[in-house]
Amino acid sequence: MNHQQADGLARRHADALAAFFRRASVALLAALLVGLAMAASDVRDLDLQAVTNVDARTVNGRIVVTVGSGRPGVTVEHRGNVDYEVSVQGDTLRLTGRNRSLLCIACEVSFEVRLAHAAALQLRTTNGTVSVTGEATRVDAATTNGDVVTMGTAAGPLLLGTTNGRIAVTAARAEVRARNTNGSIELTDVTVPAGSESRAQTTNGSITVRGLATGAALEVTGRVTNGGINVSLDGFTVTYPGSRSFRATTGGDGPASLELVTTNGSLTVLR
Question: Is residue 74 part of a domain?
């Protein structure tokens, strides 16, 4: 191959590579435009009287469940190149949201669920908040890059988890199992049921308990690796087995426990 042929081949390769990058740029721009499309809403008024379970799973969206307020049904907010499904199968309300393409910038599928009565909730999302307000027989909620928030929830256990977000439980009368990474945990006006074993654990975040109540004998323990401890529990006997741990106990009708553990954060417990 002489120099002229080599130069021609190199130019053809360069032209082909440039054409490839132009097509890739157009495809990327199209994906961006689809992802940045205006959000739309789909309101479903459903017969949910027989529903005792809710299973909601989505990506890049929030899940909001409200019990005892508003007309029963589901509102879906969606944006971009996405699919979603809403169905009632026997006693279960199933909600699913997903992206239709791997490259889906700013795509979203969010669910707002309105129930007339308590149900068992299994809620999963990524890049969005999970919120539950009102009674539930059980809450199993998890997200990544978002908060998990419950208010006024009683009866069944609260199984809550997130990474890069906050967990906040308010006015609960239930066993709480909360686990977080890179975020705080807040328990406010929580009543620990007799015989329950509650636990809150986080890494790189603080744990704050305010308005703790119980109708049973209760043991509260806490430990930190790098952080301070502030405990003020009237009616409890508080001891400090070590500089980074405490134990608080009070009498009552039956045993219950609350364990608090954090790494790189503080513990605050107030009655």
Answer: no
Quick one: which of 219, 217, 203 has its CA closest to 269? 219
Name the pairing type of β-strands 73-79 and 108-115: antiparallel
Provide, rounded to the nearest whole percent, the portion of the chain with pLDDT above 70: 85
pTM: 0.84
- How many domains does the chain divide into? 1
Q: What are phi and psi of 32, to 5 degrees?
A: -65, -45
Residue 244 lies in a domain: yes
Which CA distances in Å does 150 have to 20, 53, 75, 112, 167?
50, 17, 19, 14, 8
Q: Is 12 helix (H, G, I), strand (E, B) or coil?
A: helix
Domain enclosing residue 164, as ranges? 147-271
Q: What are the angstrom distances between the C-alpha of 160 and each of 72, 116, 222?
A: 24, 23, 19
Cα–Cα distance, 130 to 20 (Å, whole number): 41
* Cβ–Cβ under 8 Å, residues 58 and 127: no
State the maximum Cα–Cα separation within the chain, in Å, rounded to a whole number: 96
